[in-house]
Specification:
The protein is an all-alpha fold and 468 residues long. It contains 19 helices and two strands. The radius of gyration is 21 Å and the shape is globular.
Length: 468
Amino acid sequence: MQAFEQLTGVLNDVFYSKFVAILLLVVGIYFTIRLKFGQITNLGHMFKLLGEDKSGDKAISPFEAFCISAASRIGTGNIVGTAAAIATGGPGAVFWMWMTAIIGGATSFIESTLAQIYKRQNEDGTYRGGPAYYIKHGLGMDKLGIVFAIVISITFGFMFNAVQSNTITSAISNGFGFDVRIIAIVIVILTAIVIFGGAKKIAQATSKIVPIMATFYILLCLFIIITNITKFPLAIKYIFLSAFNPKAVGGAVAGKTIGMAITTGVRRGLFSNEAGMGSVPNAAATADTDHPAKQGFIQSLGVYVDTILVCTATAFIILLSGSEVYADPNLQGIQITQMALANEVGDWAYFFLAICIFMFSYSSILGNFYYGQSNIEFISPKSIYLNIYRVLVLIMVYIGGVADFSVVWNTGDIFMGIMAVINLFVILKLGNEAVTTYKVYIKDLKNNNPRRFSPKIFKQFGEITEWD
């Protein structure tokens, strides 16, 4: 097991630092330029779109689609991933998480818009789609679509759900002292109840859990920031100094490098907001909307809510608690955040964060499962395969709950990187369609003449069936 842990750690570091991190940043900057920073200048419009709800009883509304993606996004990456980023890359890693989010908003717009363009309707009136679908119907590359569907099903259904389960068992065990095996069994039972209920049930569950859990967590973070307002400017200073010169901060971050800050920040930022990874388009495609660009904007907003809001709140809790917490070699992941919270508000924080983590991570398990389900249905519509997949997901939820922290996270990161590489190359080839869709939508918006999307705006396009 130790040898496997070392192997996954080395592969993880080389793969990300030498390739994935650079590719992610380059593609994000490219689309930011193509959209003329539209993922930033249209921020107000994003909030307006979030309130639209024209779906029927069976269809999934734009807000519910947003919540499915938010359920997957807002979880361990925000609390555990942020803590791991600061512990590994120093406070400067937070700055690079911000940068990943800002340019990632453009990447998220492109992939989510493409998912809407090439979505397909189910027999019950709901929609499905994602990279596997726009790879097949947009590029005509059926085999690559199947490869991506397999990778994302393994990544989210197995690896990431193991990560979420691992975090839940660790947090509850630390907070309440329960046996991790018992906790894992409870998670399996609760997950089984929902995932056998279909996409609509998942959307309904996450649309209730996500707003509640995010609100309570943000309120606690704001309380801690306000009570430590005199230290707040210093925390900001540490983030910017460490982003470009870690040694300028000194103390606990001595030995950190700019490369460590960038690589760790980008990696944890990607894990948290999932921009460019190819996961969020699976949720974006489910929305019942009259224009693909609308869901593109909504999912861009999701990137900011995840990283700029929730991850930043966690970062300030940790930084305000002092370097003796995030630099402690005896603390890992969730333990860092729990210790930081306990230092600020007392030991009851262990119990509060345990409950909060459960809500974050449980909703993430549901969102992750939906991504896998959509892609299993892409490979084969036969229900027997989906049922087998459900059972395997439940097994991995249990295994993740009792497994080693480092092995679970490193393996998840490797699969995430493979997904990201495939998706980024694909959206580079199909990106013109999303950019054209954006330009037409913005032109209509400025002329106060909103129109239903029509594929006729493309000179050439693939197999588009839901927008005729």
